[in-house]
What does this fold into?
Amino acid sequence: MKLHMHPASITSRPVRLFIAEKGLKVDPVVVDLFTGAHHQEPFVSFNPNRLVPVLEDGDLKLTESSAILKYLAEKFDLPEYPKDLKARAKVNEVMDWANSNFYRDWGYNLCYPQLFPHHKRQTDDAHRLTIEWGLKNSQFWLQVLNDYWLGHGKPWLTGDRITIADYFLGSIVALGEMVGSDFSNYPRIRAWLDRVKALPHWKEISAELDGFAASVKEQEFVSA
It folds into this structure.
């Protein structure tokens, strides 16, 4: 089994973290995003989305972090994806919410346009308006995360035990720290994210992302 990924990829991080924490035998294959390898052959034919990560298990290929986490947890019979139908439905719900709502504004309208030149909009006005829109909506979603998803008094998103939803959303929420978000207005998020980041392999898996964050720390950012 192979994971095609890059260590500075936000969406690769939750899968890499889960693999490391659970000691799974998955061989890493680095796709060099910085040289544009994801836009070149043979990767383009392998994944026309031109994105990482991609899990390869024999004749199976999976291209979405959420699906990969579910597959790995199921394949290795891990408790982070509960068997109970209702408990599993809650994990699925949070992960779908993260993908369909939160990440859309948090990643692509607030954080990425400020961090990566290829996400910059065509004009200064368009760029400014994108970030303003992303900030407004991200603040709304962060409040939902703080008050609803984490408002039940439990340490993890769906209860007393960590699940793949925490791996997935924790890695995405941590992206905000790169643009100066400290989550001081969202105390439940701050406490929960600290628990995710206390996982034994977090620093190791996040090392390259932390290095990139350090390289841009002098920039001025709009943060939630």
